[in-house]
Design brief:
Blueprint: H1 2-30, H2 35-43, H3 47-70, H4 78-94, H5 99-112, H6 116-141, H7 149-174, H8 176-189, H9 195-207, H10 217-239, H11 248-261, H12 273-283, H13 289-321
């Protein structure tokens, strides 16, 4: 009863916060903007760069799946990885509380019967790699553009968190054997019944980070470079659809701002906050509000519509699989 109340309270607070974010973001997006001019710009947009941006976005999803697959030992089918990733991305985009990670865990366990702790470990390792890439990219472009305080300060704090997380995980990986020994001692001393299960789950979670200290770190790094390069290229190519001068710098800054900004809980679909972030970013480079809003709407559609289309067959498979019982937790010896 107490747990249910806490969950309901958390969701209620998130809902209130989301509405407040929307109440601030919506005026920033549409205040003083000629919607008629925005509609004219979008109507005259070149469809060829838009189509190419959609293809790049879908390829980015496939590249993310290929990278995630590397974290698993033994290997897991690419189709299962792709299904779990896409469903998780869509759930994260439209629902609060980062439920997409729960969806990824559920789908992959049902499809591959992999231990839940190991899946969570790989998700954490993947997020850590992207966090490092985000911080590195932010530091790389800082000499070329004056970022606003609201973006620069959080990015520095995130950098410190990333560094701390890397150190903790590195120590955990290097001292894995000693941690297992300590876990067995704690089990024998304090947790005679539950200690073994706790130790095994902790070991499986750490196993998700193991590829970061093996030879797999090179392909993981290469896939990460390809993923972030394609995300920047998607932003850049979309400039060609509108009467805008393409700029790799603007495309990169926009990617960083959106990666940081959309993590803030907001209304389902990030409506309002997404467009406001694009408007504010493009305004730094002197782009008119009508043109910025047109670009933001196109970028939003390029991100959302392909996700939903690709997700439909995978979601249908999962609905069909609901008839099958969920496998019990499997723990590696």
């Amino acid at each position: 009863m107490g747990y249910t109340f806490r969950v309901q309270k958390t969701f209620a607070l998130q809902a209130v916060w989301a509405l407040l974010v929307f109440a601030v973001a919506a005026p920033l997006t549409f205040w003083g903007v000629s919607l008629e001019e925005v509609w004219r710009i979008m109507r005259e947009a070149d469809w060829r760069p838009i189509a190419l941006a959609v293809v790049l976005f879908v390829l980015t999803l496939a590249a993310k799946s290929a990278r995630w697959q590397i974290f698993f030992e033994p290997g897991i089918r690419f189709s299962s990885i792709l299904s779990a990733l896409i469903i998780g991305v869509v759930v994260n985009f439209f629902l609060p509380a980062r439920l997409g990670e729960v969806a990824r865990l559920y789908v992959l366990r049902r499809r591959e019967h992999a231990p839940g702790a190991q899946i969570l470990g790989t998700i954490g390792a993947e997020k850590l790699v992207d966090l490092v890439a985000l911080c590195a990219l932010t530091l790389a472009i800082t000499p070329f553009v004056l970022l606003p305080d609201w973006l620069r300060d959080p990015s520095l704090r995130v950098s410190m968190l990333a560094l701390g997380a890397i150190l903790v995980i590195a120590v955990s990986i290097v001292l894995n054997k000693r941690l297992q020994t300590a876990g067995r001692w704690l089990k024998a001393t304090f947790f005679r019944r539950a200690g073994l299960g706790i130790a095994r789950q902790a070991h499986l979670t750490l196993a998700g980070f193991a590829p970061l200290r093996q030879r797999k770190v090179l392909p993981i790094g290469l896939w990460t470079f390809v993923i972030w390069a394609m995300m920047i290229a998607t932003n850049w190519i979309l400039f060609l659809a509108l009467p805008m001068r393409p700029s790799w710098l603007i495309a990169t800054v926009l990617l960083i701002v959106l990666q940081v900004g959309v993590a803030v809980p907001s209304v389902p679909g990030k409506i309002g906050i997404y467009q406001a972030l694009v408007n504010l970013t493009l305004a730094l480079f002197g782009i008119s509000r009508e043109l910025a809003l047109s670009y933001g709407m196109l970028l939003y559609l390029v991100n959302v519509i392909p996700e939903l289309i690709v997700m439909v067959p995978f979601a249908w498979q999962e609905v069909y699989r609901l008839r099958e019982p969920l496998p019990t937790a499997q723990v590696a010896e």
